[in-house]
Amino acid sequence: MPTSSTSTAEITTARCVELASVFHDPLLEEPLPASAPGAVRRRQMGLMSAAQTACRACPLIVDCLYRAVVEYDVAGYVAGTTPSQRAQIRHRLDVTVAPENFDTVAGISGRHHQVDHSEVVRLRNANPDESLEMLAQRLGCSLSTVKRHLRRERREPSVGMVTPTYPTVNEVLTVAAAVVGTPSAPSCSQAA
Ligand code: SF4
């Protein structure tokens, strides 16, 4: 997971942005039918290989994988995993998430939208060791907005808000390694 020293410049260097034509290719969206011709299968394998290489070299892979497993159900190839592999990881971790937009999870868009108070509190509880700067980046808002919501929560704790428990980053990485198999999954050392 990116640390508090992760810069905005690094955030914008997600390899999938540079390789949008690969990551957005429809062949990476869905499994091929059994009747798919060999040429199509070879093309899909080529795309998958290019995406896998890009994700392995991406500075955001640990955070990206965690979010794609725990926070968003995105389509396509993300963080070295296919949708089916992420579904298996969630199943093993007993995690349920709603469908989302790929660009948002990759940190490309979704900036400066209105921030929901409960979402700030939920993300803070889910990532207690994360810097407030990183939380603001996740939410696409300013640091002062995050601080304002957390001050409000300390002043007036949310009543009746059920805070679900989330797997840790290392739990996600361990299960991902088991599902995807090494070396496709990111190493746990990247979570430090
Ligand atoms: S790890 Fe995530 S952000 Fe990085 S290239 Fe892969 S899909 Fe994009």
Write up this protein.
The chain has 192 residues and is mainly α. The protein has a domain at 8-109 and 165-191. It contains 11 helices and no strands. It is elongated. 29% of the residues are buried. Mean pLDDT is 78; it is low at 1-11, 101-105, 107-112 and 183-192.
Average pLDDT for all residues: 78
Tell me the strand percentage band: under 5%
Portion of residues in helices?
Answer: 40-55%
N- to C-terminal distance: 7 Å
Biggest sheet, in brief? none
What's the alpha carbon Rg, rounded to whole Å? Answer: 17 Å
Low-confidence blocks of residues: 1-11, 101-105, 107-112, 183-192
Task: Show the helix and strand layout.
Layout: H1 8-11, H2 15-18, H3 20-23, H4 38-56, H5 61-71, H6 83-93, H7 102-105, H8 117-126, H9 132-139, H10 143-155, H11 169-180
Bound molecules: iron/sulfur cluster (SF4).
